[in-house]
Amino acid sequence: MKHCNPTFCHTIQSCYGLSSAGASGLVHFDEQGERCMDYSIYDLQHVGGSTMFVPILNFESQTKSVRPTPMYASVTWPKGKPPSDVPECGFKDELCEWLTNEIALLAVLVIFPLIGVVAVLWIGVLMLQKFRLQTRLDDSNWWIINYSDITIIREPLVRVLR
C-alpha cells in the first residue's frame, strides 16, 4: 500500500490470510493488505418451474482460479459453444487482413456501382425492346378500321316501280 497511515497499514497487513464476511461476500487480504474478493458469474436459467439467476462460474481470488459449478453444463450458448477468448478479428482488427487491404476495399467500391450501372442498362434494353415490339404490333394492325374513320352516306330510298 503506497499512501497509507503506518498504523493502519500494519493492522491491514496483519490481516493476511484472514477471511471475513463482507457486504458483498467473502473478503480476503493479500500480503500487501489489499482486499481480494471472490466473484461469481450468473446465468438466467429455468430451474424447476421458475426462471432465476444461478451461478455458473466462481472466481477465487486467493488461488486466482475459475471453477465451474454444476449449472455450467446447462448453459445455452448462442452458437452452441462458449465464445472465444479473442474476437474473430482481434481486439484492434489486426487478425482480419481483408479489412486493411486497400485493394479489396477498392474492388468493393468499384464493383457495386458497376453492378448498379449494368442493372440500369439492362432495364433500359428491356424497355427499348418492349417499345420496338409494341411499334411492330401497331404497324401490323393496318387492316383494323377505327369507327370514327367510317363515313355513312345516306341516299334517299328510291322505289323502282315496274
UniProtKB/TrEMBL annotation:
The chain crosses the membrane at residues 103-128. PROSITE patterns: PROKAR_LIPOPROTEIN. Keywords: Membrane, Transmembrane, Transmembrane helix. The keyword Membrane applies. The keyword Transmembrane applies. InterPro entries: Peripla_BP_I (IPR028082). This is Uncharacterized protein.
